[in-house]
Amino acid sequence: MLVGMIPTALRGGAPRRWPASFRDRLTGPLPGPRDIYRILRDGGFRGSTVDADRVPVSRQGLPALPEHATGWTWIGHASYLVRMGGANVLTDPVWSTKLPSVPPRVTPPGVAWSELPPIDAVLISHNHYDHLDAPTIGRLPRDTAILVPAGLRSWFTRRRFTRVIELDWWESVEVAGLRFDFVPAHHWSRRGPFDACRSLWGGWVITAPDGRRTYHAGDSGYGHWFAEIGSRYPGIDVAMLPIGAYQPRWFMRPVHMDPDEAVRALSDLGARRLAAMHWGTFLLTQEPVIEPLERVRKAWAADGREPDDLWTLAVGESRQLP
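Given the sequence above, the corresponding structure tokens read:
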């Protein structure tokens, strides 16, 4: 479908029909039984909690946002609160302390749920448990606008959400005065043992009426999509990019960038500022918990970039652009 076309569900029609599988969108092979056996033989995915106390945390509440300013607050993992164009947007919100099959989070959510402003839109990048958290979603008012990948609408309507908008890659919709474009990612989806790739995965480009633009990558390996996103959506002010969950590399490379690749992805996007995410919250993989922070700073300096344009925020920290 063409960019900007309004999905049928928004026009009051029947829910859209999607293919039974999105495996044709994969840009790398899914892990097979031999890969899983090798991981388990080598000790599994989990990293150590050593140095977890070095992850910076600054839970000082939300600062006031001047009129016409745009603000980003890192909640933790892939969860950001974006305040833009007078609207409040949550990305992949996870406030739970524990997720299925994952050790408890090592840092608290950066903002207490009770301190959040009214939320105008929630963006979901894909259905993995660390990006789609049922207990957190259950705390939202049922008339909240939820923007989801193709094939994921029914998960929300079963929970009685009434404003669920599902999009294919390169489709867009306007909510609360902002334009939201769903864009590709090098990743996959699965919620249970038999539903791999039944729903789509991707990232989100948010554009305000004044032209200010930000991008949330969701989960993604490094690849050609970043250059195409940058070509279609020039002038990205801030790119929220994952820098963690990348070891062992032989297993994670197709679906999770490492910090050096995140800096390369920013160049491909043509974006100026990198807001780091997907680290320091849940111990999903084998790298030391503080290593993503150290590596992204090193890669940034080696690329000769302006230090102030790398936002390695503390959990709960906010940044603003006038």
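Residues 1-5 have pLDDT under 50 and may be disordered. Try to locate this feature in the token string yourself.
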